[in-house]
Amino acid sequence: MSVSASRPNSHDVARAAGVSQSTVSYALSGKGTIAPRTRERVLAVAAELGYRPNLAARSMRTRRSGRVAVVTSTAAEVRMSMLSGAAEAAVEAGYAVDTHSVSGAAQDRTDRVVELARSGQVEGVLTFLPVVPDGLTTDDGAAPVVAVTALDERMRSTGELADASLLADVIAALVDARHRRFLHVGGPADFASARARRDVYVAETGRHDDVESLGEIVGTWSPESGREAILALPDDAPPLAVIAANDHIALGVMRGASERGWQVPGDVVVTGWDGATFGAYTTPALTTITVDFREAGARAMRRLIAAIRDEPAPTPAAPLQQILWRESTGPARS
Amino acid sequence: MSVSASRPNSHDVARAAGVSQSTVSYALSGKGTIAPRTRERVLAVAAELGYRPNLAARSMRTRRSGRVAVVTSTAAEVRMSMLSGAAEAAVEAGYAVDTHSVSGAAQDRTDRVVELARSGQVEGVLTFLPVVPDGLTTDDGAAPVVAVTALDERMRSTGELADASLLADVIAALVDARHRRFLHVGGPADFASARARRDVYVAETGRHDDVESLGEIVGTWSPESGREAILALPDDAPPLAVIAANDHIALGVMRGASERGWQVPGDVVVTGWDGATFGAYTTPALTTITVDFREAGARAMRRLIAAIRDEPAPTPAAPLQQILWRESTGPARS
DNA sequence: CTGAAAGCGCTTACAG
DNA sequence: CTGAAAGCGCTTACAG
């Protein structure tokens, strides 16, 4: 029994097991009609030799790479937990994940996504950043693309992160608690989630005649955009309820209020979104809508894999979001 | 000129350009001795046909995958920016990045890293999480492994995140500002960075006879560990300077102080680490040591690639960290 | 139930 | 300067 210095291949296993190379292949894949005893012997020898199939060779033969690409950026827009959730869902389905970090404008990102979808190196592309839907012509043999948060409805989107319906409950509870003046500090409009949050805000604050909205500011998901929104307010703005599109904005809102000498939640109440860790430890602690990013990433990946396999998109059961009332909204509860 | 429905290969390009397949290969790689005019024609035809080399085939032939693995977790311990920096450095060097999300104890992570290093699917492994160095026997043909933050010095480590020298300056400035009582709330001991920060804390607070340390708490990088450390203090702890090993811990320290009615920075001053965005918007804003995580990720990846290529590790020039004095330390400056 | 053989699409000595 | 040919390590009809 010769031991080769380098990594054994299926021929080495075949030789050691006294069978043909094709029998090794069938034994390992479980596909052919191999006698159980032969199969066991091959498996034992393969294990003993530390055999691992060469995935490049398999890929060349099967014309399937077994890889999907995930497009992210360095920015805080994307959470590690979402990437992890997506990666784990991919592994579960037998796919490996290629990470691609992109920067630049939506058009550049779109070009990169299209390039990936056409590269033939991956069977699908999941993008965590908005892309320009017009650029995503999937005529030719391009791989399917799923965007977690899309510019419009022309492309596949998981939609789950864009569900803003809980905000209606938040606003209703604040109105019940006698809040009558509102302000929205939103996210960039190319994020479907930002648009959905703004839309619900507009609809819900418009529902009551005696509820006033000071407007909808377009922010950048950043604390600074929340802070600036507050600093730009007239002195008589409070009492005011600020609906921030994420926790970072909400933090900036609280900071801005502090700089203006406004008490939170006495003069200004604030709600965030995402359930960021820090929100539980600010003073006051931040009311927020928690998001299960790990599961969101997993669902997006499952949707991509369904698209790859031409299966119907899975319909998830449990909700991904939840209202978490904390100190920044004072005594308001639903 | 026949147009095949599927992806063209080098034979298709050869036929369309009226040359042999090997000439196409040489023209694209620029390796052989191809006449400039031939080469140009081949390149033009390849572009026209939208030819892209099949990487699986290339990989099988060259026996090099052109891939590196990055091991991360869902946890906040790892930042997206660090992953992005690593991914971009990999692309720059001609490598693609496979993302592997792991969870579980250090031993499980180590097993996974070893498995990856031996899988033959990647040429190197970069782990963002601590692994058990004993498990990392790289005898056989395993791929090199680099850990960004390692358990001990037996394995390769970038070390740069573990450089805690700036903390000496921070403590010196606080001592100059008449702070005499200190507390350290650190990170888990299997992080080299956590150990280095604690070591510098111990050395620097031990340098002066009239400086007292209330001890070194082992935390979990989490706000809760900072909060608990403060809640466990005796009532007469202030005036106190708390050195937190990261910004999340520092946030929890501020929260705990707030719960105890201690003013920051009046009764307690606090410093964090990492330069997290939220730290600029807390009240008071958090003094911290900023870390360029993108560059840290890039340097770690460059070190891995140097190891793959058997080149000496690159020696970085610019420092990755910087002290950022803000409100949580009051008027102390260096 | 097992094996011989073709072929996936490249790279790279080698011959001319 | 160019081309014919081998071979990387698999999967999978097909013959026996």
Automatic annotation (TrEMBL), chains A, B:
Residues annotated as signal peptide: none
Domain HTH lacI-type as annotated: residue spans: 8-62
Pfam families the UniProt entry points to: LacI, Peripla_BP_3
InterPro entries: HTH_LacI (IPR000843), LacI/GalR-like_sensor (IPR046335), Lambda_DNA-bd_dom_sf (IPR010982), Peripla_BP_I (IPR028082)
Alphabetically ordered keywords of this record: DNA-binding, Transcription, Transcription regulation
SMART domains tied to this protein: HTH_LACI
Molecular function (Gene Ontology), one example: DNA binding
Domain of life: Bacteria
Protein name: LacI family DNA-binding transcriptional regulator
Lineage of origin: Bacteria, Bacillati, Actinomycetota, Actinomycetes, Micrococcales
